[in-house]
Amino acid sequence: MRTVWHSMTRTGSVPGSRRAGCLALLGALALGLAAPAAGAQTALLNVSYDPTRELYREIDEAFAKSWKAKTGEDVTVRASHGGSGAQARTVIDGVDADVVTLGIPSDIDAIAKLTKKIPADWRGKLPNESLPYTSTVVFLVRKGNPKGVKDWGDLVKPDVKVITPNPKTSAGGRWNFLAAWGYAYGQDKDTAKADAFVGQLYKNVPVLDTGARGSTVTFAQRRLGDVLPTWENEAYLVLQEFGADKFDIVVPPTSIYAEPPVALVSANAERKGTTKVAQAYLDYLYTDEAQAIFAKHHYRPFKAEAAKGAGLPDVKLFKIEDYQGSWDDIQAKNFDSDGLFDRLSRAGR
């Protein structure tokens, strides 16, 4: 069962007095759908990925206020969260999403190919290839960094236990996998060595949760593992929730340019009569107001000026497409049936 941090305030922030209990209550709904407001004229469903719960809670409230001020109409945005791959599957299987805000391009590609509810050229429908923000992968370690983790190469040391989600169900898991592979490939452009490096790393993984938030719970609350490669925003959230006296963030010199895209599920929206509002919701993500909210939650906004003062560290980022080609190729090579991850799993990781 997917877990949620459900003791958050409505704005996504957590008072300091409640910090210790933020993950203590883990009974949860598999799909965290917020109830529509009474009398709402329009309700949208945003199917999103695991670590965006706090982000979209604030985004959705801000959009509703903006839409009301602009049009006089009430709108409620419901949000569903889980591992990005699993979330994409729910849309493929019929969940009535108006928009998807998923963790990796291949998940939206899968919806487009298997349902035709999203056009094949969806990446060209919004600015910056439908990326209102980007992210990267950093390391969360125990306070004082007792295992001395500084870079990706340290994750294959025999005494370092790595907590990372399953790349078959989690976009965070796929970005971690691809970041590790890209780091190794970048050393001398040797594919076989990069494959072997990832295989060695996964031998140090004791458990694979279905989503990024599940892995955060495993590391931060269950206290398993020595290092959690994770979305940048998720690492900062753990410091906020548990206190900087318990964990450190290690920023590797090189990491991956993570692309969590958004798209209109046009066939669903047209049938439901929500196209105008759903498109306005996606357009809103590029406004100065929304961009500032992304930066506040430690995502990397499309508008660079919105990131000023957010304290996001400089990292040398690589794009996995430059190493492995198109997202069709990346998905097939690594995560489809009999891809690299499956082969590593059969070999005992």
From TrEMBL:
Q: Where in the cell is it found?
A: Periplasm
Q: What is its main location?
A: periplasm
Under Gene3D superfamilies, the record lists: Periplasmic binding protein-like II (3.40.190.10)
Q: Which UniProt keywords apply?
A: Periplasm, Signal, Transport
InterPro entries recorded:
Thiosulph/SO4-bd
Q: Which residues form the signal peptide?
A: 1-40
Give the transmembrane region(s).
none
Q: Which family is annotated?
A: Belongs to the prokaryotic sulfate-binding protein family.
Extract the PANTHER family matched here.
Answer: SULFATE-BINDING PROTEIN (PTHR30368), THIOSULFATE-BINDING PROTEIN (PTHR30368:SF1)
Please identify the protein, giving its name as recorded. Answer: Sulfate transport system substrate-binding protein
- Could you tell me which species this protein originates from? Methylobacterium persicinum
**Where is the organism placed in the taxonomic lineage, from the top?**
Bacteria, Pseudomonadati, Pseudomonadota, Alphaproteobacteria, Hyphomicrobiales
